[in-house]
Amino acid sequence: MLAVYKKEMRSYFTTPIGYVFVAIFLLVGGAMFSYTTLYSMTSNMSAYFTYMMLMLIILLPILTMKSFTEEKKMRTEQLLLTSPVPITSIVLGKFLAAYTMFAGSFIFNSLYFLILYRYAEVKTGLLIGNILAMLLLGMSFIAIGLYISALTENQLAAAIGTIAVLLLLLGIGLINMLLPDKYWLRYVIDCISVFTRFQTFTNGYFDFASLIYYLSISGIFVYLTVRVYDKRRYS
User: Cβ(56)–Cβ(141) under 8 Å?
Assistant: First the structure.
């Protein structure tokens, strides 16, 4: 797994993808921070993290679209499938590399909030909750993107497919707002909506059920990716 992880991390910076992702992430994060806090003259961080959540739907597919499609394009997929490395280790290595890129960029981006401590009263617990929510959300989005990348041979198709699935997951939460308060379907949607689970953390509450939810989503899609390549190895 470590060898795959190092290979993937190296590939992000031997191709433009890693530089493009980091540059866009920091640029967008800085612009969002300036608009939602400095320009608005407020220490309320909910708008910033909500906008960044929406941006992840577009940015994270940039990371995951090449995870397996690149192997097919470079004709190295057969080497992976015939190597003595377990499929689980290959998938986890790619997953952790993509997550490292995202988490590193996001944590560095979050240093902007240190500026607020000088000019306003910042609720540290609320800030940590929002950061944790974004890290968990990013983890599940990367796992979904990795799975879709394993299903196609085209990077553009992988990116568009991932964006479509993530928009669908977000749309479920938005539809929920239109339902009557006591309608039973609203409770069901609340349980599966990534947006509702995200809001729990951003409101300053540590919800153990939401933590399990995001970890489960990540685990399920990593497992499905392993199954896709297990099937290819033995077919």
Answer: yes
**Which range scores top for mean pLDDT: 32-46, 92-106, 194-208?**
92-106
Rg, C-alpha atoms of the chain:
19
Give me the domain span that covers residue 141: 2-234
Q: Is 75 left (phi over 0), alpha (psi -120 to 50) or beta?
A: left
CA dist., res. 160 & res. 134, Å (int): 21
Residue 178 backbone dihedrals phi, psi, to 5 degrees? -90, -10
The per-residue pLDDT for range 148-180, each reduced to its tens digit, is 998 888 888 899 999 999 888 887 767 766 666
Q: What is the DSSP letter of 23?
A: H
How many structural domains does the chain have?
A: 1
| Amino acid letter for position 125 | G
Instruction: Check if the beta carbon of residue 135 is closer than 8 Å to that of residue 109.
Output: no
The pTM (predicted TM-score) of the whole model is 0.89
Cβ-count burial of 182 within 10 angstroms (0-12 exposed, 13-18 middle, 19+ buried)?
exposed
